[in-house]
Design brief:
There is one protein chain. The protein is an alpha/beta fold and 295 residues long. The protein is globular and about 60 Å long. It is 35% helix and 20% strand. It has an eight-stranded mixed sheet with strand order 5-4-3-6-9-11-10-12, with helices on both faces. It has a two-stranded antiparallel sheet with strand order 1-2. Strands 7-8 form a two-stranded parallel ribbon. The protein has a single domain, classed as Vaccinia Virus protein VP39 (Rossmann fold, 3-Layer(aba) Sandwich), CATH 3.40.50.150. Helix 9 runs parallel beside helix 10. It is built from ten helices and twelve strands. It binds S-adenosylmethionine (SAM). The site of S-adenosylmethionine (SAM) has 23 residues, from helix 5, strand 4 and helix 8. S-adenosylmethionine binds next to helix 5, strand 4 and helix 8. InterPro entries: METTL16/PsiM, METTL16/RlmF, SAM-dependent_MTases_sf. Belongs to the methyltransferase superfamily. METTL16/RlmF family. GO terms for molecular function: U6 snRNA (adenine-(43)-N(6))-methyltransferase activity. It comes from Musca domestica (House fly). It is an enzyme of class 2 (transferase).
Amino acid sequence: MHPRNIFKTPPDFTDLAIKYPEFRQVCNLELSGKVCIDYKKEVALKALTRTLLLEFFDLDVEFAPGSLIPTLPLRLNYILWLEDLISCWDSKTVKGIDIGCGSSCIYSLLAAKKNGWSMTALETNKSNLEYAAKNVERNNLCKIITISAQKQNDNIFEELFENAPGISIDGPYNFCLCNPPFYDSQLSTPCNTRNPGKRPPPHNCPTGFKEELSCLGGEVTFVEKIIEESVKYKSKIRIFTSMLGLKSSLSQIIDALLKRNVTNYCTTEFHQGNTTRWGIAWSFFIDIDLKKNKI
Ligand SMILES: C[S@@+](CC[C@H](N)C(=O)[O-])C[C@H]1O[C@@H](n2cnc3c(N)ncnc32)[C@H](O)[C@@H]1O
């Protein structure tokens, strides 16, 4: 985990169960007296994420029924990596774009609440848009988070930069972030590993509806689209970034960058318990540290 990630020290479930009735309801008491939750139950994951957001960030977040329940340590690792990336130049105000904010709008909420960053959150799904807007309102962050509806699934920045009504784009954004839909919608069984037979089944109950988790060509095609549009809108965003769910996607994305002569990129690994994710960042503006790092 990132050295500044507060979840490097696991939260005390007993304290949380005493303080939060919603969390208490999903807790089990082991014979040893240890308080634990069943990560295979969606209701338990929901209560855990809601409780951690309230306790550590004073954020009150609701999720659309059936939508993706974000895991907080990973989202925080990504935000902390962004803090490191943008720290290399002086910026009085930080502005970011959250591509596919989901119903929780978690990245924008964390970025705004923790760091005071101004965020523009893009989303295509109607119910996610409604929930994201309510989450921003409920947490009094409307002044620094703008939710923008994307009409086309295959557009990334075009609608925002060409014709988003009511959004004034005053100077370049510092960064964009993205947790893309991982799976290829053409595959009948979603697969999140290159060696499905060798990997143990996931510890957490899978959450999220199809449109959130999959797209044509999966995450590689989605991030290739970000790369393609980044060339067109290179002056509008200082650092382009995305998370990747599969290690095999990383080399394909690096190839896609090199094909467009983008050599100024860096990668990272996000480690959270048994789950690893990857991050990629590129820029046409600032030399980013090309060293590979792991957090
Ligand atoms: C994997 S989910 C990530 C949700 C949230 N950011 C998180 O990390 O929990 C991907 C999201 O991207 C949205 N999405 C898909 N295509 C999009 C596009 N072209 N523009 C904006 N959002 C899109 C989906 O509806 C979904 O909510």
